[in-house]
Amino acid sequence: MRIACVHVPQFALQSLSRIDPSLRGAAVAVVGAGQEPAAGVRPSLALHSPVVLACSRAAWALGVRLGMTASAARFVSPDLRVVAADAQLERETVRAIADALLGVSAVVDTGGRVAASGAHLAMYCEVPSKTRGMTFGDRLIALLDTFGIAARIGNADDRFTAWVAAAHSGSE
Predict the structure, then answer these.
(1) Residue partners of 100: CB distance under 8 A and separation at least 6
(2) Residue 45 above 50 pLDDT?
(3) How many CB atoms are closer than 10 A to CB 168?
C-alpha cells in the first residue's frame, strides 16, 4: 500500500485566503493568542501577546518570522497586514480537504500540524492500487487548487517518508 502525504504550507494563511482573496500575494502575518500562563503564574505581557502563526512570502521578505509578537511584526513594515487566525475556519478547511480526498481515495487520515512552529498541515491518504504516484499527486494538486489551496504531495510506503517527500519537494 502506497501512502500520499498532502502537505499544506502556512495552513492558517491559506485557510484565510480562501475566503479573502485580497490576502493572496500581499504581505500578511496571521497571528494567534500567545501561550496562557500556568495556574498561579503572573502573566507577562510580552510572553502572552499574540504571536505570528503563519506569514506570506512577501511578509517573510520584509523580515516577519514565525513566533514573532504581533507588535514586532507590525514594526517591521507599515505595509504588513496583520490578521487574526480563525480556528473554526481552519477546522472547516480540514473537513473540506478530507471530503475531497475521500472522493479519490478510500482511506484518509486528517493528520495534523507539522513543523516546529506547527505552521503547516499534513494529511494522508491511500494511493489507489494500479495508480501511478505522480499521476495521483497531480490529481490531488488539481483537486486542492479548486479550493484555493496550494499543496505539495509526496508518495511513499510509509507516512514519515511520504511527509519528508512532500515537505521537501520543490513544487507548490
Answers:
(1) 143, 144, 146, 147
(2) no
(3) 10
- Give the other-Cβ count within 10 Å of 41's Cβ: 9
The CA-atom distances, in angstroms, between 20 and each of 102, 105, 147, 150 are: 26, 29, 12, 15
What pLDDT does 44 receive? Answer: 47
pTM for the model: 0.80
The predicted structure's pLDDT at residue 48 = 57
Tell me the per-residue pLDDT of 87-122, one tens digit each, with 9 for 90 and over.
999 999 999 999 999 999 999 998 888 876 788 999
SS3 sequence, the chain? CEEEEEEECCHHHHHHHHHCHHHCCCCEEEEECCCCCCCCCCCCCCCCCCEEEEECHHHHHHCCCCCCEHHHHHHHCCCCEEEECCHHHHHHHHHHHHHHHHCCCCCEEEEEEECCCCCEEEEEEEECCCCCHHHHHHHHHHHHHCCCCCCEEEEECCHHHHHHHHHCCCCC
Separation of alpha carbons 167 and 172, rounded Å: 10
Give the pLDDT confidence score for residue 34 in this predicted structure. Answer: 53
**Matching residue, cell 480540514:** 94
